[in-house]
Design brief:
Largest sheet: 7 strands, antiparallel
Keywords: Flavoprotein
Protein name: Flavoredoxin
Number of helices: 4
Domain Flavin reductase like: 10-164
Organism: Methanolobus halotolerans
Helix content: 10-25%
Oligomer: single chain
CATH superfamily: Electron Transport, Fmn-binding Protein, Chain A
Shape: globular
Number of strands: 12
Cofactor: FMN
Distance between the termini: 33 Å
């Protein structure tokens, strides 16, 4: 039997993504978000949600661009820090000892040490309530060669992305393969 636990922002897993932006003076900023996901296949788009009070919100509104940096497990400490500190008060990338790289395609930095980066141009923003949702068209994805499989696609096990459990505020790693998508359910599909 299921019991009601109330309405809350809870879905498993939530990402632990680091958003890269530039402020009005060209200073790079990094902020961890958990409210986000793929929102369209064609054009390829991603959605992220931020509070208006954040520096990243202001930066995206001004520059109409951002990067989604997907940290590997070895950067969980830095990822957590990026979600606690404010870009208004300090240079978070400098404090974390990570390297911002200027994208050639959008006016936003990405983090050199993170294995996977999505470069996005803002195409929509929607005020929802406490958060504003930003829809970014993915104009390119940059990946470390070391995380690619034999076909040149990112391998989730090699990337080792950090995921977030919002209810208990813990970070987790990706687990074992359960089966091949669009395959294991075939026996249940009616012909």
């Amino acid at each position: 039997m299921k019991i009601s636990i109330g309405a809350k922002p809870l879905a498993f897993p939530a990402p632990a993504w680091v958003i890269g932006t530039y402020d009005m003076f060209g200073k790079p900023n990094a902020a961890t978000i958990a409210w986000g996901g793929i929102s369209c296949s064609n054009p390829p788009c991603i959605s992220i949600s931020l509070r208006e009070a954040t520096q990243s919100y202001k930066n995206i509104m001004e520059k109409e661009a951002f990067t989604v940096n997907i940290p590997s497990e070895r950067f969980v400490r830095e990822t957590d820090y990026f979600g606690m500190a404010s870009g208004k008060d300090e240079n978070k990338l400098e404090v974390a000892g990570l390297s911002p790289v200027k994208s050639d395609l959008v006016y936003a930095p990405y983090i050199e040490e993170f294995p996977l980066v999505l470069e996005c141009k803002l195409i929509h923003s929607f005020e929802i309530g406490l958060h504003t949702q930003f829809i970014g068209e993915i104009v390119d994805i940059k990946a470390d060669e070391s995380v690619l499989d034999e076909k040149g696609a990112p391998d989730i096990e090699k990337v080792g992305p950090v995921v977030f459990a919002p209810e208990n505020r813990n970070y987790h790693r990706i687990g074992d393969i359960l089966g091949k998508a669009f395959s294991i359910g075939r026996e249940l599909k009616k012909k």
